Amino acid sequence: MKAFDLINQFEKFAPKEIAVEHDPIGLQIGSINQEIHKVLVTLDVRPEVVEEAIENGCDMIFSHHPAMFRPVKNMDLDVPQNKMYADIIKHNIVVYSAHTNLDNADGGMNDWLAEAMDLRNVEGLVSQGDYKGVEYFMGRIGELKETTTVEQFAHNCKEYFNVSGLRLISHELNKPVKKVAVLGGDGGKFYNIAKDKGADVYVTGDVYYHVGHDMIADHMSVVDPGHHIESICKPYLAEMFKEWAKDYDWPIDVIESSINTDPYQFI
């Protein structure tokens, strides 16, 4: 099969048109007409992930975060990132990235995060507009099975997302929590939408220092478990691709990256 077959099917699930404007999604390196046999699913495309793909004989890497956020100014191969691109080309690996279109897709990234917290009565959070008569949203908002407190919910998030530490922004640790909003990645600027929709707590990553002050001033409790919780996409995407391979008789293998690409450690 060709890379196009997988890409075409995926874009029916998460159309490129529902991505945030100027998000560098889609084909990153290679040709959609290349024959593929083994796909590596990953959150990030980093040099160690490319090494993993090469060692496993993969001819396609499917990532959530784009491999090329910024244009390459030169191809100095002493720069690790540039060498990574050269290795990808040398080993004929197709790289495709689905970023905010996967975030916004029904049944995509933010639904997976909501599922990790076992939220009920889940709805969209931040409207991204209409595409083919369907309104798409970034982020989700729903209800916990049982009411808890801000402090206990934050502790629970360490288990929900398998993180060893997180940042809690709140001066109301004993405040009851029932309604939870979540937006994977960097969603601090949307906290007022979560508040306006009645969220008792908002889960998102990469909250800036001064935004954190604004959240506290607005009496909004926020749990920041980091950006890497989006690695939840790996098993979901791998299972989706395996199901499609079975349904459409695609002769491909699909594996999940075993590399932890989180740049942060809690010590």
From TrEMBL:
Pfam families linked: DUF34_NIF3 (PF01784)
Subunit architecture: Homohexamer.
Family: Belongs to the GTP cyclohydrolase I type 2/NIF3 family.
Position of the signal peptide: none
The UniProt record lists the keyword Cytoplasm: no
Taxonomic path: Bacteria, Bacillati, Bacillota, Bacilli, Lactobacillales
Residues that coordinate or bind a divalent metal cation 1: 65, 103, 227, 230
Domain of life: Bacteria
Coiled-coil stretches noted in the UniProt entry, renumbered to this chain: none
Protein name: GTP cyclohydrolase 1 type 2 homolog
